[in-house]
Amino acid sequence: MNKSGMSLIITMLLLIGTAIVIGAAYYAWSNDVFKGTTEKITPTIDASIGSFIKPVEISAIQTYYFTNLDLNSDSEIENNPEERFIQAIKLEFINNIDDGMYINTRVYCLTPNVSWASVNIDENNHNQLLDRDGEPFNYSGQYIFFNGTTYSSSMKFYDEEGRLYYASSSNGTAINTSNLLDLIDLNCPSKSFFLNGNSKEDITYYILINHTKVPNTIIFEIVASTKYGEVDKKITFEIS
Asked: What is the value of pTM for the model shown?
């Protein structure tokens, strides 16, 4: 091989080596740039996802506290003596979009070994107790209202403002409710309504605690089903 051929081979090897060095340097540089760009873009994407509008939201008091309910200190709430109570739970449903929709709700108890019911109360008629069909509940030939101020083996009722009333006749005379044992005709754990676009609507669940240990933390979950999916709210009763 003559000198010109040898020189050509050396020149080609040098060019290949230079290309490899330049390629490696470019790869390292571009990788750093891409990594830096990813680190800067990812939080922006996360922030954008986090700010998506929820079609429906539920607003409510999340924890209710109860004390001095165990009258005979047997670490239970029961009907004899009458220690049972009803708590009104107001839920505000907020529609954040223009589209109106039907809302189907249901309440569940997530805490085991609790006897409870979701009842109907007519707040516009002295807090009258209604059956599951919305008719006045007949208890041993009389109707129950929760507008009494005295206890005579009478079930308690706490309204949305936390005011305490006792089971009574319409004129406020105390009624003994300790024999009100069958809750099947009272239990109504679901409610449905139409929520207009960009509006708010209130509904109220009335939760009757029929039997539980004391102390106890009872967790209820209200699940609302819409055409956009489900939304839920947990409500806690702290009983001590």
From this structure: 0.79
